[in-house]
């Protein structure tokens, strides 16, 4: 069993895609062990995306992710980290395989609807950043 951090970004929430994305996750069979709608603080956004702090799009990324409510999720299941990454598809929706969230529901790299941890280290770090222990099912 593996846990990963997943997020519906502000564009997805704003466009009413939360039910569609939750349906896909549950149809796949991941267990949603943490779930909350929230605003991300500037500080949390900079920490979450710290690996990109020197990239030219960093400022835009932080203002986008803090610009409206997100849905933060902790998912549990076999191979959940790579599995959820696979369900999301490539970062740029133009390169995402048909049937993936980004191919089906997004058009631009900057607003690509969902986030998913890319490794067990980042999953652990991101789950800690967004959830306290008592917000997660045992
Ligand atoms: P991913 O979200 O697939 O893990 P990433 O970690 O490389 O992708 O980048 C994080 C987010 O930053 C990505 O979802 C959208 C934004 N981003 C990445 N590359 C970008 C670019 N070249 N221009 C604008 N935004 C970009
Ligand atoms: Mg990433």
UniProtKB/TrEMBL annotation:
One Pfam family here: NDK
Residues of the active site: 115
Keyword Ubl conjugation belongs to the record: no
Cofactors: Mg(2+)
UniProt keyword annotations, A-Z: ATP-binding, Cytoplasm, Kinase, Magnesium, Metal-binding, Nucleotide metabolism, Nucleotide-binding, Phosphoprotein, Transferase
Residues covered by the Nucleoside diphosphate kinase-like domain: 1-138
Chain positions recorded as ATP binding sites: 9, 57, 85, 91, 102, 112
Keyword Cytoplasm: yes
PROSITE patterns: NDPK_LIKE
Homology family: Belongs to the NDK family.
Family annotation (NCBIfam families): PRK00668.1
Functional note: Major role in the synthesis of nucleoside triphosphates other than ATP. The ATP gamma phosphate is transferred to the NDP beta phosphate via a ping-pong mechanism, using a phosphorylated active-site intermediate.
Name of protein: Nucleoside diphosphate kinase
Gene: ndk
């Amino acid at each position: 069993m593996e846990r990963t951090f997943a997020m519906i970004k502000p564009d997805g929430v704003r466009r009413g895609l939360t039910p569609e994305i939750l349906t896909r996750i549950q149809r796949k069979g991941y267990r949603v062990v943490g779930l909350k709608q929230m605003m991300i603080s500037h500080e949390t956004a900079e920490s979450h995306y710290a690996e990109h702090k020197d990239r030219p799009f960093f400022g835009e990324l932080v203002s986008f992710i803090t610009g409206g409510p997100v849905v933060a999720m902790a998912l549990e299941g076999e191979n959940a980290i790579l599995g959820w990454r696979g369900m999301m598809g490539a970062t740029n929706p133009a390169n995402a395989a048909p049937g993936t969230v980004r191919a089906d529901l997004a058009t631009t790299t900057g607003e690509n609807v969902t986030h998913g941890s890319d490794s067990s280290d980042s999953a652990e770090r991101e789950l800690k950043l967004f959830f306290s222990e008592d917000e997660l099912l045992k």
